[in-house]
Amino acid sequence: MRWTLITVTVTAGLSISLVACGTSAGTSAGATPSGSASASGSEPGAAPAGKIAWGACTDLRRPGGDSPATPAATMQCGKLAVPLDYGKPDGETLDLALIRIPATGPGQRIGSLVFNFGGPGASGVDTMAQAAKAFGTLGARYDLVSFDPRGVQRSRGVTCGTGAQMDSYVSLNTLPANAETRDKNEAAMREFAQLCEKDSGEVLPYVGTVNAAQDLDRMRVALGDAKLNYFGMSYGTQLGAVYATKFPKNVGRTVLDAPLDPSVTFYQRTMAQTKGFQQAYESFLKACVAEGCELGPDTATASSKIDRLMDRSVAAPLQVGDRLLTQGLASTAVAAALYSKLTWPFLENAVASALKGDGGALLYLADTYTGRKPDGSYSTEMSSFPAITCVDTAERPSEEELVRTEEAALKISPLFGNAGAGSMCSVWPVPGSDEARKVDATGSGPILVVAGKGDPATPYQWGPKLTEQLKTATLLTYEGEGHGSYLSGSRCVAGAVNAYLLEGKMPDSGASCPA
């Protein structure tokens, strides 16, 4: 999930750690490999067959869009046509963009393993192109597949105005937390929502997770798999849970890492995530001080320096080339670096540089997070997130509810507290539905949920809750920090996940992995 301090959004920040993988598997879960022979779409609820037009990958981008990525020789990109509106299956279509890296061996090929890396709004095509090596153990026996979900990037990505208008939006300050700031941000959100309707109004009603789950089943058939083997991270866990609810008989080996509890309200989500980011922030400060921190000899001093930087950035933002590092961008940069312990040293250096007058590193962090490219254009992440989030819920908070939420969040964290994604959804131009918030995978194959105790964006308590709601899931707990556990560097987690996906061995109930 993606967290931006204007709209409290949330995404999977991949911390790619190439580590050797041990094993910690328990009893067999009885999952069966999905071959292609029986993937005919004949099961109840199965999708009709479709064809993917595979070819060379020609437009891959690195994170931040700074330069084209060079595709591996075996990497393939393609498109699959799906209905824009599943209520009109023979009507207008939407082309989903996919990427595939064929299984490398050794060992018998199991089938395809489809990834969603989070967001909602992250490009699976670009992420897989960069992250494939991190999944090399799985890639020996699976074709690694990912995609840009509907409303994202190449799949009719939602756009909302020009690059300059996006610059203005993402630069909004969140401090001071008073009525003037609140009114200014509300007006900006209304303008942003209107731009989204103007530029992408024809696709906005159809970008929700329920439709994306139906897309997954079309992909399963087109890939030639009898069951969908799936690896979802962050928001990808909600997509996987909705798929398992709609198509339980088609569920293959499924891993949901950094789980989202789809049943939470905007208020509950905001409180949990504010606590999560504040906890991660405090852990960063403690780790910094323990190793000789540039920001001060103790956590109170380090924190006060960051507070002063934020306050100063409101009245006098730092000049970085022809741009300004506003308080809003500086806050986004701090939050972005909290997703993984691997970026904590970079955050320390970036803040120390900003305190000396150089905001370049913090601006780089913010740009990477918001999807701003060097040419001033943006990926669709900042636009896709509210489009999908607001279609996935019928909640439309009142002004009074938003103020109450913000006041409660600020008591938890003056730096990260605000009214959450409800602020944008309260002004969103299309209605939403609660269908994607109700999950129950009764009748599906076994599902592995992996939750981290120190995850800031998807707090740990959501793991047990999603596991309970699914009915067919087993929870694996990771005791460490960071958003997402498989790529955290934990051999224990990687070993357990690999044993399940490759051999069908589910960890024992109540299993945990140390930090």
The CATH superfamily title of the largest domain: Alpha/Beta hydrolase fold, catalytic domain
Judged by helices, strands and strand pairing, the structural class is alpha/beta
The CATH architecture assignment of the largest domain turns out to be 3-Layer(aba) Sandwich
Give the count of helical stretches. Answer: 16
CATH class placement of the largest domain: Alpha Beta
Number of domains: 2
Using only C-alpha atoms, the radius of gyration works out to 22 Å
Helical amount: 25-40%
The secondary-structure element order is EEEEHHEHHHEHEHHEEHHHHHHEHEHE
Q: What proportion of the residues form beta strands (DSSP E)? A: 5-15%
Low-pLDDT runs of 5+ residues are 1-44
Gross morphology is globular
Number of strands: 12
Q: Strand order across the biggest sheet?
A: 1-2-3-5-4-6-7-10-11-12
Distance between the termini: 22 Å
CATH topology of the largest domain: Rossmann fold
Instruction: Determine the mean pLDDT.
Output: 90
Query: How would a textbook summarize the main sheet?
Result: 10 strands, mixed
